[in-house]
Amino acid sequence: MTRVIHTGDTHVGYQQYHVPERRQDFLDAFRRVVRDAIEGDVAAVVHAGDLFHDRRPTLSDIMGTLSVLEELAEADIPFLAVVGNHEAKRDAQWLDLYESLGLATRLDAEPTVVGNTAFYGLDFVPRSQREDLEYDFAAHDVDHAALVTHGLFQPFDYGDWDAGEILDQSSVAFDALLLGDNHDPGKQRIDETWVTYCGSTERASASEREDRGYNIVAFDGETRITRRGVDTREFVFVDVELGPEEGVERVRSRVGEHDVEDAVVIVGIDGDGDPIAPASVEEYALDAGALVARVTDHRELAADERETSVSFADPDDAVAERVRELGLSGAAQDIDETVRASKVADANVADTVEQRVQELVEEDPDSLTAADSAGDESVDGGLRDDEASDSDPSGGGPTAAEADGGQPTGTTGSDERPEQSADEGEDQSSMDQFLGGDD
């Protein structure tokens, strides 16, 4: 029998809500998965992509991940992985760095055999390049085979890549497809093959209400898939339905019913009642000890009341909503992220944008075409929301699922890029430092 942990979408380096503690949370969750693997004496840890949140992790993210993988290597447990859409670079990948250090194996069309199972890998592939794919994998001589890959696959909701087509065209018969990209776990069967998402290890958006975790997959004549949870920072979800005469005091009272110490507090307001300034509720939660508080008023307010629904504690929400209304293409939203992401130093923005435009045009010459006529409008000061799509042209869709052109969980930003010290600028790592590659 071969028993492995199937994990993915760890998004190390994501400073969610612009809070350093949340950045550490994502690394800590990855470390817990690895320590579970060591404690459980599994045969391997299989990572289905998006180890990092973006293609330019900081040095602290790289070194933190290094320390986690060193723990796994000391236990003599292999780390098998593919590259996801968030971290993908044009040339050498960060995963290659860890492979060069003997800490990881980047899966590909050749089998990597662990016990009685051959593992294969397929990195994330943009939609524009999938028609040319040939699912030609080298033969193996063991009992089982599994393909590890990253993307939004049918038959799951919002899938744009047909898993059945891969299975039909593959030169190897797979017992399981171990998937990453969709942050919601799930499993389905296509004929005799299990197709499963492991889900994310930390909540990358407020839509991810269910507990986080990973899969344990056992190959022993048949394939068995079970779930195990990961202990993460608590999210407190407070849903308030206001009556006609109710207002901010009612919302504060509902928040006060919960222990919010060190938690991320997400408040949703529906119903009737008075207009509410979200900042007043957020401040109440923060005073009660919350690490982060976010309020969304779902009510349809009259035009003269709408300005009260903007939270000055998090102006990103208002700006991101405006960006979504512009109907930008997925590629244009990617450029918007590059311009506005706080981790790109001001001095590097122009070069980074130029390089990214070249990459996008090479992938798809029409990628910068606006999604609709609204895309002709200009943006002044717009920004990506914490939970907005990296590349979804509509800006909608389930934030728990993510892919290039799908429904990602987004990257953080701010209404203006914070001033960056020289030390912070030096922490922006490039692959050239490590492998001599060109990103």
Task: Write a structural description.
- The protein is α/β, with parallel strands linked by helices.
- Helices cover 25% and strands 20% of the residues.
- The protein has a six-stranded mixed β-sheet.
- Strand 13 and strand 14 form a beta hairpin.
- The longest helix has 21 residues.
- About 13% of the residues have low confidence.
- This is DNA double-strand break repair protein Mre11.
- Its EC number is 3.1.-.-.
- Keywords: DNA damage, DNA repair, Endonuclease, Exonuclease, Hydrolase, Manganese, Metal-binding, Nuclease.
- Its cofactor is Mn(2+).
On the 0 to 100 scale, the average pLDDT is: 81
Q: In this structure, how is the largest beta sheet organized?
A: 6 strands, mixed
**Would you identify the regions where 5 or more consecutive residues have pLDDT less than 50?**
371-426
Total helical segments: 10
CATH homology-level superfamily of the largest domain: Metallo-dependent phosphatases
**What is the CATH C level class of the largest domain, in words?**
Alpha Beta
Write the CATH architecture name of the largest domain. Answer: 4-Layer Sandwich
Our measurement of the CA-to-CA distance between the termini, rounded to an integer number of angstroms, reads 40 Å
Question: How many β-strand runs?
Answer: 17
Question: Could you give the order of the helices and strands?
Answer: EHEHEHEEEEEEHEEEEEEHEHEHHHH
Beta content: 15-25%
CATH topology of the largest domain: Purple Acid Phosphatase, chain A, domain 2
Shape: globular
Number of domains: 3
Helix content: 25-40%
- Alpha-beta classification: alpha/beta
Subunit arrangement of the protein: single chain
Strand order of the largest sheet: 4-3-2-1-13-14
